[in-house]
Design goal:
The structure is a single chain. This protein has 60 residues and is an all-alpha fold.
Length: 60
């Protein structure tokens, strides 16, 4: 795995965690910000052929 892919997957995991925390604490604004960031990271992964299913398999 190259540095770009590893970094992107790390950012996705971190953002997903932050999104979950924001939702759990009821911070709607932060949840919207984190969701937008996660959407951008998913788009970036798709554009570069990075498989992100492993991120969600590891957290399940």
């Amino acid at each position: 795995m190259d540095a770009f892919t590893a970094g992107l997957l790390h950012r996705i995991r971190t953002t997903q965690s932050d999104l979950t925390r924001a939702r759990e604490t009821g911070d709607e604004y932060l949840a919207e910000v984190e969701q937008a960031e996660l959407d951008d990271l998913h788009r970036l992964a798709a554009e570069h052929g990075v498989e992100i299913a492993t991120v969600y398999a590891q957290s399940a």
